[in-house]
Amino acid sequence: MLTFPAKGQIAGQAPCNSFHGKQSAPYPWFQVEQIATTRRACPEMKQEMQFLTSLAEMREAEVSGSVLILRNENGGEMLFTVGD
Description:
Layout: E1 2-3, E2 9-13, E3 18-23, E4 32-37, H1 45-57, E5 60-64, E6 67-71, E7 77-81
Antiparallel strand pairs: 1-2, 2-3, 3-4, 5-6, 6-7
């Protein structure tokens, strides 16, 4: 889950912990900084680290209907839909 609670801010839920940070680039660019998470341990920690690392690597955002598509320079994508 990914939300934008205020201008320049992101928040959401990774596989285990909630997170928040800054989104410092104007649309359609995407630049996440200062990601902080809660510190709950769980079996999904490997997936959590992969999710947060991938999120930090995203550089472009596109909204298509109810889908937010984030992309990086290497062709990687993350998709978020309304209600995720």
